[in-house]
Structures are given as C-alpha cells and as structure tokens.
Design goal:
With 265 residues, the protein is α/β, with parallel strands linked by helices. The protein has a domain at 6-147: Ribonuclease Z/Hydroxyacylglutathione hydrolase-like (Metallo-beta-lactamase, Chain A, 4-Layer Sandwich), CATH 3.60.15.10. It has helices at 23-37, 51-54, 69-90, 95-102, 172-181, 197-218, 233-252, and strands at 6-9, 13-17, 41-45, 64-68, 111-113, 116-120, 125-132, 139-144, 149-157, 186-191. The radius of gyration is 19 Å and the shape is globular. It starts with 5 loop residues before the first strand and ends in a 13-residue tail after the last helix.
Length: 265
Amino acid sequence: MNVNCVLVTGDHRALLVDTGSTREEGLELRQAVETQLEGRALVVVNTHAHYDHCFGNSAFEDVDSFASRGCVSDLLGSGSAQRRLAAESFQANDPGFADRLGSAPISVAHRLVDNSETLDLGGVRAELRVVGRGHTDHDLMVVLPELGAVLAGDLVEEGGLPALEDAYPLSWPLALAGLLELGTELVVPGHGRPVSPQFVAQQLEQLHRLAEWCRQQLEGGGSLAEYEGPFTSEHLKTALERARIELQAGSARGEGAGPRSGPLP
C-alpha cells in the first residue's frame, strides 16, 4: 500500500512529511512539491526509519530535515539490511522497483528531535512529537493544532492490520491513547485514507487486546486458541516475540515489567 507523503503549507514555509521508498520516488515527489511552494522554504520530516517512508530522503539532502534521534540511529544501523531484504521481496513481481530500491542511497535527517519541537510555518504550527515505542521504538507524529489534525505515520494503519515486525506491542496502546488525548478531528495514517478518532479508538482496542494476550502468554497462562481478534496466528507469534524482546529490554534498563496498557478510554 502506498505511503501517505503529506505536504502542509503555511504563509512562509511548507512541511513535507515522509519521502517515499526510492530516490526516484523522492525526486518525483520533490518535483510535485515545488509546484506548490510559491516561494516558501521547504522542511522535511521523517516519521520513522522504515524504507517506504524515508528512502526518498536523498532527493532532499539540500533541504532542512528533522527526525527523531532514534529514527536516524535506526536508519544508519538497519538501512542497508532493509534495502537488501525489501529489494529481494519485490524482485519476482516488480524487478524494476526492486532495482531502484536496491540502489537507493541511505540518507538521514540533519536535525534530531529528542522530545518535541515546534515549527512555525507561518499561520500554521507543526508540532513534532517523539512518541517512542509503538510501531517502532522511535515513532514521531506531527500535530497541526490550527488544522485540527495529526499526521500519525504508521502508529495508525488504515486498510490493513498494524505491522508488528519491529513493533513494541505492549507500549503501542499507550501511544495511541496519547494521540487520542490530543482531541484532533482528523488523523492521517501512514498508509490509507484519513480517519476519525473513532477509528483510532477501535485500533487502540485491537492493540490493547493483543497486548494483554501477550502478557498472559509471557506470564505462563493461556494458549494461542484463547485469543479473540483480527490478528492471525502468524501475527500472534510475531507479537509475542516482540513483546518478549520489549520486556527484556525494559528489564535491562531497570524498568521492571514494562508499561501496562491500562483501561481503554
């Protein structure tokens, strides 16, 4: 499913959120964006380090760019492996795209966001907020108070189930609860159509149930058959392994059993 690369324009600056999967996609996106700038300066933000959201960065190397510190670290560490594995996965069905993906330069943002940063676009504020653990361990969302919207990256998925391959399933519900507390009317997911807070609440409930199931499994009770929800057995195996990694990482930092997802809002 295509990535939502979103352009937000103010009076003086424009903000592009995510850059696509390849340098060629990034160049095509930049060409389209420049027709909308009308003299505005351009700023780029990466929501997270997955190839489909940031391998187009090399088309914007001369542009001021932001990402969470964890995003930059992850991309520098995993970029080459992501590039190889993703190219291999497309080779049979789309060899042209696979070749473009396999040759994509690994380019990272210039400016690191540790917690939050507000960009004044001119009449529109873009609040960059590092959520941390959820879809990845470094998710960043862009809050647009004047527009009543939040650009959520892959913290929210429309058109498919949330991807769990390097997720933190025990913490993800907390991240979505924090998103809902913003009270925005519109949420733009990383993939698919814009959604309402009610949609996000439904996805929160799915992930909450998944997190609680993972906890029960890790605490020694229950079985695969006891889960009720949309995730398949393969999803459950992945979630359980990721939850185990999440708890082990928390214990190594002295965080005990890790965060509880708490009651649903």
